Amino acid sequence: MNAPTDIDYARYDHIRPILWTGDALQLLDQRKLPFVVEHVACSSSDEVASAIHALTVRGAPAIGIAAAWGVVLAARTVQADDGAQALQKLEPALQRLNASRPTAVNLAWALARMRRTLAVAGADWQQVLETEAEAIATEDLAANRHMGALGAGLIEAGSGVLTHCNTGSLATAGFGTALGVIRAGMAQDRIARVFAGETRPWLQGARLTVWELQQDGIDATLIADSAASHLMKTGAVQWVIVGADRICANGDTANKIGTYQLAIAARHHGVKFMVVAPSSTVDMDTADGSQIEIEQRDPGELFGVGGSRTVAEGIAAWNPVFDVTPGELIDAIVTERGVILAPTVASMKAAFGD
Ligand code: MRU
């Protein structure tokens, strides 16, 4: 994979959400951003699992990377002659990591990769695990840079874009998926306007995305999620660009709640819809979106803003935090393996096999 040469990564990519210190995992606490920039140290795999569940670290690729480092931490508690023996002892910790969030397939993908590596490792299995976790992170960053160039290539100069949730450096090893395309599109002067939806209820757009872009000197305009259709009607955006938590064999894509309604509104207004995700987000074992487990979180997330309650006591709330956009509403899926236009079962199979 060749990274594009016309992007100054030092300018466009400042933040790292996951730092391995050699004996602990430092996670940039995304619950506290943007006003408190603080790291949480995890020194056990169960601490990593809790951090993933609590959204201290979040975003599909980032939780896969964090889980891989969680396996490295779990390995520190186990004595074994080789990887196969270690795998048996580590399986309960792997399962607890896997259970920390259900929708993003990158978590299960990273753990499966760590399992496969461990199964064939010899006496140096602990070092092998560490090298593998590092490789998962390094490959993610390279994939993001490559996708940035591929996705930006689809955007005509002077375009406006709307993004949802946070898909940037904070959600990945760096640079980001959808936000990587936006960074590359800005660097290449293709994108003239960036809009970001707040992303209720957890406010990934309002708290994370616009702050992250501000670090790069990219002006983004925040909108209420409910302003998206109206924005499209004005003609200010030509592309909606989002990330993904799981892309099925037919192109159906799970992403942050609210993505589906953006895709419907985009099709209605003639706005193009792009999904950007590494191949670790593609799940060819899941035939279509109806089979994806949608995470339900505490309804309490809907009862207030910034810790202040805004809803009367005794109100019920429903809080699914992902939805599924049907493949037929997607104009382009961009992975590091290439661009799939108007995904179908056949084009997904051609790119990713069975
Ligand atoms: O609940 P979150 O914040 O983990 O949800 C994140 C998203 O839905 C992102 O769009 C997705 O994981 C892609 S991140 C590159």
From TrEMBL:
InterPro entries: IF-2B-related, IF-M1Pi, IF_2B-like_C, Initiation_fac_2B_a/b/d, M1Pi_N, NagB/RpiA_transferase-like. The active site is at 245 (proton donor). Transmembrane segments: none annotated. Substrate binds at residues 58-60, 101, 204, 255-256. The keyword Phosphoprotein does not apply. GO terms for molecular function: S-methyl-5-thioribose-1-phosphate isomerase activity. The record marks 165 as: Transition state stabilizer. Pfam families: IF-2B. Its EC number is 5.3.1.23. It catalyses: 5-(methylsulfanyl)-alpha-D-ribose 1-phosphate = 5-(methylsulfanyl)-D-ribulose 1-phosphate; 5-deoxy-alpha-D-ribose 1-phosphate = 5-deoxy-D-ribulose 1-phosphate. Belongs to the EIF-2B alpha/beta/delta subunits family. MtnA subfamily. PANTHER family: METHYLTHIORIBOSE-1-PHOSPHATE ISOMERASE. This is Methylthioribose-1-phosphate isomerase. It comes from Stenotrophomonas tumulicola.
